[in-house]
Amino acid sequence: MSSTLLVDPLRPTSLDDFLGQTQVVKELRIILNAANGRHEPAPHTLLSGPPGLGKTTLAAIIAAETGLDLVTITAAALDSPDALTKLLISLPGPSVVFIDEIHQLPRTVEETLYSAMEDQRIDVIIAAGKPHQRVIPIDVAPFTLIGATTRTGSLGAPFRDRFGYIARLRPYDHDTLTRIVARNAGLLEMTLTQQAAGAIAARSRGTPRIANRYLRRVRDYTHSPDSDDSIDARVAAAALDAFGIDHCGLSETDRDLLNALCVSYSGGPVGVSTLAAVIGETPATVEEVNEPYLMQIGFLARTPKGRVATPAAFTHLNLPVPTHLTSVLPGQLELVDQQPAERHPH
């Protein structure tokens, strides 16, 4: 558990500095202004969306905007009601409690949170399962719970319904991501042309965290104590090429996956476990890290029979499109409904 987040000079510290997610920022301004005006904690908040879009940053901003202490913890550390009880009774006062990957909480911990979220009280069971079992209510300091999740559907409905505000963060458009890259280049004392910022943004998968990582790698590639030249788009592209990131933002692992699907299995369909074994990754990594972006840019589809490469994937790899795919138009592949991931017992 930590009362602070790691200091990152690129991390926005206020809603004014937070670029993108316009609707979410607008709604948070309304909510936080109202809470501050009433001198009460902000409502419990659930932030969902793919990794790297700013959920952790927004939690820190909410704490800063309300003037409360921030306590951060991962769901994996709250593996029992006792662990949750210790966390809540140790709060230094009114606080923002940020739980990352909150969908991983065991059901028993979710249920223990109910009374704490609604009544600032937690029920402690003494001698559980014995004839003299007792339930002792313990008051806890007022707090705002902020949960971050990539799988909203994995939370129990009664738990999810106790959040007063639920927001979904979405991938950033190219223009906003370019602005973020340009802003952060200044913070890193880099001289970057607007075209170079756009080139980095174009390969960053709509994700600020990835954009910041690539910006730092461009800085490494171009580092020269004697050079005052600005970094242009050509140099930025060469830097990312050197780190294996192609013009569509695909990594070496992404390309290995597409190569396996297109070359070894003629475009599919093939099961995710088979693909993962071929490229030396776990199925979970393929499903959570590689596939979402490949689907987003139209290179891969999930069908009832397995994963299928689209004609665009073959074209990207400079491979001939198989005859059975040449007549397939976008949207004609029979996609599987994207159901929430099944919850696994802890």
Can you give keywords for this protein?
single chain, 346 residues, alpha/beta, Rossmann fold, Helicase, Ruva Protein, domain 3, Arc Repressor Mutant, subunit A, 3 domains, 14% strand, globular, disordered C terminus
Overall structural class, as computed from helix and strand content, comes to: alpha/beta
Rounded radius of gyration (Å): 23 Å
CATH topology of the largest domain: Rossmann fold
Major β-sheet profile: 5 strands, parallel
**What's the helix count?**
14
Question: Percent range for helical residues?
Answer: 40-55%
Q: What CATH architecture of the largest domain do you see? A: 3-Layer(aba) Sandwich
- Share of residues in strands: 5-15%
The succession of helices and strands, N to C, reads HEHEHEHEEEHEHHHHHHHEEHH
What is the count of structural domains? 3
Poorly predicted segments:
2-6, 328-346
Task: Please tell me what the overall shape is.
Answer: globular
Our measurement of the CA-to-CA distance between the termini, rounded to an integer number of angstroms, reads 20 Å
What does this structure look like?
- The structure is a single chain.
- This protein has 346 residues and is an alpha/beta fold.
- The chain has three domains: 22-168, Rossmann fold (3-Layer(aba) Sandwich); 174-242, Orthogonal Bundle (Helicase, Ruva Protein, domain 3); 252-326, Arc Repressor Mutant, subunit A (Orthogonal Bundle).
- The protein has 14 helices and nine strands.
- Strands 2-3-6-1-7 form a five-stranded parallel beta sheet, with helices on one face. Strands 4-5 form a two-stranded antiparallel ribbon. A two-stranded antiparallel ribbon has the order 8-9.
- A hairpin with a 2-residue loop joins strand 8 and strand 9 (306-309).
- Mean pLDDT is 85; it is low at 2-6 and 328-346.
